[in-house]
Design goal:
Length: 260
């Protein structure tokens, strides 16, 4: 690893991503970062994968600089992202999904906003969900309307897996997530709408948030994250996200967040 202080740390959580890795996603990410003038680092956090994911990442990282592979016991996406943030050294941290449904090159749209004084800059799929089923597109509109009535009124898309923030902000907000107060950890793939609470905490802490529309197309090739059919998976995800919004709103009304 380079001793130069990076400006950007890219954190990618990894749980059973073998098929995405075999499609060349890390090559895309590394090639883009290698073209940048600013110092950077790439951190992949393996969240206890049970397929060949870890071996594929390790093989790709062999002989490359500014890359780190972390291993953690399976704890779910928020735990993997948090582990990466704690290991990161950059001023700005991007956490993005391995499938690269939002290409890493969309960083070009996010980073300039830090020069304008923003602390959190997130990617947004907008209203459209290219590559998603009609069911998911309709469901996203319903969730958007209900969620904006309760929380984060100025944000359209809380769930896009392409978010960045200043590392200092992440170090303050992540430990406050309810996800880390739970004793039980997921045993397999589990939906988590932690993004809603995270963005709520950023907003409550007074950080300046900017939402930027980015390119997005569903490129996820993994088949081990859920064995459910489309309808069952959609219903489960919708239930989890609705429950998260209600929980955060209830905590807000009860004053549990207090002064942060």
């Amino acid at each position: 690893m380079s001793t130069e202080q990076p400006y950007l740390s890219v954190v990618i959580p990894c749980w059973n991503e073998q098929k995405n890795l075999e499609s060349g996603v890390l090559e895309e990410v590394h090639a883009y970062l290698s073209r940048q003038a600013y110092p950077w680092e790439l951190i992949v956090v393996d969240d206890g994968s049970t397929d060949l994911s870890r071996a594929l990442v390790e093989q790709f990282f062999q002989g490359r600089r500014n890359v780190t592979l972390l291993d953690i016991p399976h704890g779910g996406k928020p735990a993997a992202v948090w582990a990466g943030i704690q290991a990161a050294r950059g001023d700005v941290v991007l956490f993005t999904d391995m499938d690269q449904s939002t290409p890493i090159s969309e960083l070009d749209r996010l980073l300039p906003w830090y020069e304008e004084g923003f602390d959190v800059v997130i990617g947004s799929r907008g209203i459209a969900r290219e590559g998603s089923s009609a069911l998911r597109k309709a469901g996203s509109l319903v969730f958007l309307a209900l969620r904006r009535l309760a929380l984060l009124h100025d944000i359209v898309d809380t769930q896009c897996g392409f978010k960045s923030c200043r590392r200092a902000a992440a170090l303050r907000a992540f430990p406050r997530l309810q996800y880390f107060q739970q004793a039980e950890r997921p045993k397999g793939w589990k939906v988590s709408a932690y993004d809603v609470e995270l963005l709520y905490l950023f907003e409550k802490m007074g950080y300046r948030l900017k939402e930027v529309v980015v390119q997005w197309y569903n490129r996820d090739r993994s088949d081990t994250k859920s064995q459910q059919g489309e309808l069952a998976k959609y219903l489960q995800e919708s239930f989890e996200m609705a429950r998260e919004v209600l929980r955060v709103k209830r905590n807000e009304l009860r004053g549990l967040y207090g002064r942060v």
